[in-house]
Amino acid sequence: MTAVQKVAIAGSGVAGLAAAIQLAKAGVEVDLYEAKPELSALGSGISLQGNAFRVFDALGAWEDIRDAGFAFEGLNLRAPGPDAPIVAQLPDAKSGGPDYPASMGIPRAALAQILLEHAERAGARVHFGKKITGVDARANDAVEVYVDDESAGEYDLLIGADGLNSAVRDLIGIETKPEPTGMGIWRTFVSRPAEVERTELYYGGPVYIAGYTPTGEDTMYAFLVEKAEDRFGTSDEEATRIMLEESRAYGGPWNSIRADLEGGARANYTWFTQHLVDTPWNRGRVALIGDAAHSCPPTIAQGAAQGLEDAFVLTELLTKRNAVDETLWDEFHARRVPRVKTVVEASVQLGQWQIEGNRDADTGGLFAAVARRMAEPV
Question: CATH assignment of 6-69+107-178+274-375, given 3.40.1440.10, 3.40.120.10, 3.50.50.60, 3.40.50.300?
């Protein structure tokens, strides 16, 4: 007997789809509502680490995801300049344990499609172009969910996994919202030169960080992290021009990236944000997970992994307990909030050191401390 028999989920990101897969596999009736008209995966690629792979394995999706991405070990640091010499080769901690690679890059669209297929195969009903616009939790054991201003019926639980600008978060009166950290990032999806076999980062030059991560045999995504600017509404042509100009201080594989940009590869821009909703993340029978509950700069590449872990822990409790009660919520928060707080604070700190130009910061020590924590069972 599971603690829930019918659950609504808002959002088709990795956290929402992971929750849908696990609940549907356990025989729970699941309706996932996505406001966008189709599956959307903003950006170009995503970096993932071993603790995310553990969750994918539990979902039954690891082999498909592994085959669609590019697994690698280690991290290269290069110097700016025309020759872009490699100045350090750093090992990666295997936060998922010895059975998984240390890191992997994968196109966001491919990851989203794989998770969607697994959710539907498990029996979840996915509704695109349907926005949750209201909740009524009058009863202690149910919540009425409104979709496009009409009742979609009563559910045992509503999971708000609808991202940074969560509508569900607003509907239940949580005022915590993402705040800019002072950094912005340009991303583009390009071809992978054969010499790029792992993530490579360049520190110094006109931007805080320049880098790229392989996502497949022939693909990778490249990025430039700069001081946050009002780049929103920039035309495609202007976005390409800015990324080309800001990258000219970096040689090596950046020459290939610039050739792809000149050939039509598109650039997109977002700001880094941070937030962490205070405990509790639920209001009665409505709960937040993933970016709805927390966000951080991708300086440690743990944002998606934390959303996946949220979904894994919550669904584990819901499918192994007999009731949705305070004991369940207390365990959920005890297992998630301290771990997420570690990631958010460390990610923000790494970015702040870059903004301040702090050359004495113990960046390696902070990376190692977080990796050790992520290697612990969730």
Answer: 3.50.50.60
